[in-house]
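Quick question, first post here. What does this chain look like in 3D?
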Amino acid sequence: MTMTRLAKILIANRGEIAVRIARTCRELGIGTVAVYSDADAEAPHVGACDEAVHLPGVAPGDTYLRQDLILDAAARTGADAIHPGYGFLSENAEFAAAVADADLTFIGPPPSAIASMGSKIEAKRIMKDAGVPILEGVEVGGLSDGELADAAAQVGYPILVKASAGGGGKGMRIVESADDLLDAVAAARREAAGAFGDDTVFLERYLERARHVEIQVVGDTHGNVVDLFERECSIQRRHQKIIEEAPSPAVDTDLREAMGKAAVDAAKAVGYEGAGTVEFMLAGREFFFLEMNTRLQVEHPVTELITGLDLVRIQILIAEGRELPRDVCDPTMRGHAVEARLYAEDPANDFLPVTGTLHHFRFPTHVRLDTGVTDGSEISVHYDPMLAKVIAFAPTREEAALALAQGLEEAEIYGPTTNRELLVRVLRSPEFLAGDTDTGFLDRMDVVALSAPLGEDPAIHAFAATLADQARRRSRAAVQGTIPSGWRNAASQFQVQNWATSAGELTIGYRFSRDGLIAELDGRPVEAVLHRALDDSVDLTVDGVRRRFSVFSMGDQVWVSSPLGHSSMTRLSRFPEPVIEEAPGSLLSPMPGKVVSINADVGSEVAAGKTIVVIEAMKMEHAVRSPVDGIVASIPVAVDQQVDADQVLAVVEATEGDGSE
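> Answer (accepted):
Ran it through. Tokens below.
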């Protein structure tokens, strides 16, 4: 391959990875082009690039997955290379070939390597021939129900149903018994088809109490392939990683050498060039090939921090035809790095993705923040709900984990519900700090308890919010604006504000007089001194402890942060709006999405827990189940119909004697 110098790179992606790639390009003096959908017109990745091209529409299939539009954007802007990031077209061999046919450089592996690893079934065959340990599996395409049951019995329960194409937990189901097999295969096929355009799935033995350990590899066009040590990614939900670290606490020098050699052998078996990841399941000291991701990984920052290398820079150097630099061929490892994926989702509600406006987004400077959102960003149903990757680096694993937990706890995240609380508690848990992790870690935990607010005191936070409100009102007063609201020379009645908080409805009463600030927090008298109050910051002493409270308001929604934690609350009016009532037994859509299947008929009897409707949103399927034994009275939606949050999907009338009230 001849050596070329890239001058302008089109980044065929969005969000934090597009921002991340643009940063390295700028450091290398390379121009950048962004592409963006209607929904991303004001997204940070657009401003991070020198030029941008609009892709009309919002759905990925109409925008970021349109190869013709991406190639046209490159031609229109004079780009000489395309970086696909991860997801979307990053592991599409057809796209990689089309880029080359257009006389552009694809910053990634050859199409042949992508194609061979794009099918997990074919990848297993190649790895077996290369001497890489594998878990045997069975493809289920074309099998009858009986043959499918026989194949599952041959593999042995518990079984993992996996999509042959793609990854990220899409099209994957754990099956504990034959009773759940057919439904799991059907759901996995449907989800795989929606995510990857290929519904091929296979069965594989599920390893319980195993770790997910992966090896970062890089290969140049001169035949050099090296590994850059391992990452552990065992903390997962829905088979998707949420906490990653490097190095793994379970891997010693000998095991690291063995796994690194297997990963290099795997890469050489497919003529790999570029940055890629070979993933293994680790059980004790045995490891088995899981898959190879022929792209940059979401969790690549932890490898960057322990090696001091820039993986995007390495990708670009390889694409230019250069040999791997000496510091890459002979890498060294230092310290420990831990990454957490911050998602807009509700862990206490089966990790349901959450949409809405991200009003305010701030993190302390001691952590690395890779993000593609900012104040005012809309979290929509069209894309993955990840808000950011937050990473900490320290000399030891425990220091890194605790620094990351502290950074997450201090962050001001005002908008949709996130998994922040769960991440903090996992990072601080004795099991995690001891390195006692595996892929079933969260399954054994009380996720609802882990997701509870972090040490918040809603009453004191509501008090701070009330004082910020009065400061705002006084700042706008036409006369005597320096006198606090409710000032009386003599004792008088309280000023009162009611709030809806996580602890229920709270009443804050206060008054200012010559004796100072007098207050009651939900009927409890407190000693309080107000040192300073602005509409967004309150310096307040309560019961002898002085604290600074940050207050952010958006309409009647208010968020408060302090050393006590974080609170979200709603300012209540004395004249509440009437409540709209739904028919008894209504099953509501948990979020906007598309109906992909209806699993019951009107008039049929259903048991509690029976899936009635399945909707698809944010690349995942969500089952809406009957809460009681009953009769399906109506299903006012149809397959392929778009539905809004809280829209009635079905009505189930409870049968007598089911124990419901």
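The longest strand covers residues 225-237.
Residues 136-205 form a domain with the Dna Ligase; domain 1 fold (CATH 3.30.1490.20).
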